[in-house]
Every structure is written in C-alpha cells, then in structure tokens.
Amino acid sequence: MMMKCFSSVIVCLVVCLVFCLFALGCLADKRGDVTAVDLPDVKGANMAMSLDLYRRLSVSAKDNFVFSPHSIMNTLGMLQMGAAGETAAEISRVLRAPVDKAAAGSWFNAYQAGFAFLETADAVTWHNPRRIWAQDGYPVLTSFKKEVRERFNASITPADFRNQPENSRHLINAWIYDQSQKQLENAIAEGAIDPLTRMVLVDIVYFYSQWAYPFDPELTDNMPFYVNETTPRKVPMMRQASQFPYMETPDIKALLLPYKQTDIGLLILLPKKQNRLSDVAADLSVMGLKQTLASLAPTEVQVFLPKYRLESRLTLSDHLQTMGMRSAFGREADFSGISSAKDLYLSAVLQSATIDVDEAGTEAAAATTAVVAMKTSLAQRRFFRADHPFMFALVNRRLEQILFMGRVVDP
Q: Does the global pTM surpass 0.70?
C-alpha cells in the first residue's frame, strides 16, 4: 500500500542583467527615499525585506503572486560583493546587511549556513545553484571572483553577449531549464540580453517535499472560494482533520502545515473577514510575524485548503529603487569592485517563480489522518476554512527565515 504524500514543487529564479555605461543616457531618474536604518540580525533582515517587498507587490500585482526573498537576498548579496560607495550602502540597507564588505561577507556566510541542513535532509529535495556569465574578455576583478566563489559558491562563465546575444540567452536558458528540474523554460525573455550586456547573475531555488500530515485526495471536492465578498468560484478544496501548529487573533487565523522531517512549513495567514487581506499585510511587522510563529501551538484543526498552482514573472527593479536601492540603476552606479572598467550599472532584476500545492497518494495515510482526527471532539476542534484570499510563506520556523512568500486571491 503506497503512502499518501503532498508534493510542493517550488522553483525560483532571479536574473540580474548588468549592462555597461553606454546606455546610461536614456535612463529615467527613478529615485526612492533612503533612510538610515539599524542593521538587525540575519533573521530580522530576511523577514523585514520579505514583508517590505510583499507589501509593494500586493499593490502592484493584480491577482495571485509568489516570490522568493531567499533568492533575492542571494543575488543582491553577490552584487554587494562588487559594489562600492553609496551603491554598496544602498544595497546593504535594502538587505539590512552590514555595509563593510568583510562584515557583509561574514553575514552572508552565516545566512547561507542556516540552509545547509536542507542539502542532507532525507525528505527534502533542495537545489540552490548560482552562476554568473560575463562577457568574454571583460576585465572581471580576481577579488570579485574570489568573493562570489567563497561566499556564494558561484562560478563565472564566459559568454559572447557582444556578438551573439541571442545565442548567449539560449545557452543561459538551457542551463536554467536543466538546473530547475525542467520547471523553468525560456526564463529570460527575448530582448532581455543585448550587445551591451556585460554580466548576468542567476540564482535558482528548487524545493520539493512531502507533508508531514498528508491530505487524502479522495476527500478533495469542488467547493466555493470567494474571490470577493459576492463572487464564489468552485475550486478543488483539499481537507483533513489533524493536529497542526495553530493560533488566532481577533483579525486572523494562522496555520502551519509542516513538511516531513524538517523545520520547514507552509504558514498560511487567513483574515477572518473576506475583504481584509490587504489590512493584514499592511499591519504585519517583523515583530508581529515572529510573535505569530512563536504563538503557534499544537491544535486539532479541520482544514479546508484549495489546491493551487501559481506562476509569477516579476520585474523587481522599480520596487528595489523605491526601497532605497537607487544608484545601482543609474549613472551614479558604482560596481568598481566587479571590474576595473568601472562602466557597469544594473539594468534589471527579474524573478520567475512557481509553486504547486496539491495532494497525491492512496488511502494508507487517510486512515492515519482519521485516527488522529478521532482523538478530539468536534466541540474542541478549530476550523480553518481557506475559502477566501489568504497570504502564505514557506518558512524555516526554527531560524525564522522566509524562503518563499505570496498570496492566493483566485486559485
């Protein structure tokens, strides 16, 4: 008899395209307000950046979206190793990382070390490769090569952007397709690379795991999901009764669906009122999210959760500028730590991400679920019915780190 399982396939790509100085004359001057901030620890930094970007995306994105703060931190971290002056200071403020390069390097080492356990976890497939492509013959500093290799395990590969931009794009896309377990096809769109491109930095995150407490596919049924207060739409709704980490406040219900044999779980924040998701996001702080995670307690819960697959292709350049990373995208850019040519600026930060939440398997796990559910009376059981828009975060509960984040408004 086969064991039931839940499969969550999450793939994320961040592509940073760094173009040379010659195109600077046509750039618009988009600047955000940079304010001095205290540089918190790695945990707080990840959460603060995640929530900041989530709030901005929730305004600009029309419907569902998913993004990876983890992948963004990796890619901007590689850039920071080559940045100097105000450009380095601005990147550090967005990341909430130290400005000093040596301190920043140690800070990123500590951040990366927090995810090392995923590489050997039996119940998780975790793949997080990085690679940089640089124009063949372009003078990349040895010190930068050393920093990204030692801090981020990223190698630098030559490419001929100047003479063969489309061929270079196809080669990079082929590598992305292979490294993403064939989940991301044509990740870099036509025209994104041109003869002025000097460097492309790529970070890929692939995560696959099984639920610790699986859903029974035979219990999945078409049920209403309220896209808004008056518009229900029938969607496949998974359901089960079991013991989960759970808490609630007067405004929200919070549920953590743990994965097998790890500290990783899918945190779902569900507003009690259908039209209040934007209020939940606006009011959520780093301290509030930490308190939510700390307050989760084992509780018998009847869960109703829609199956969903989200795909997002996000342009993050404008958001990063309004968050304070302004000079990197303009004539003031200082990436003198990458090349002695000192003619680089950041053209775009793009992210493609997918998340697939569904169930699979046979009846063996359903019996287990039924046994657990029978231990508590209906009067004591909490109900978590995700039949209206909610936000989610793939979190490392022990380290208080967010790997992926997003919202579901129309599964």
A: yes
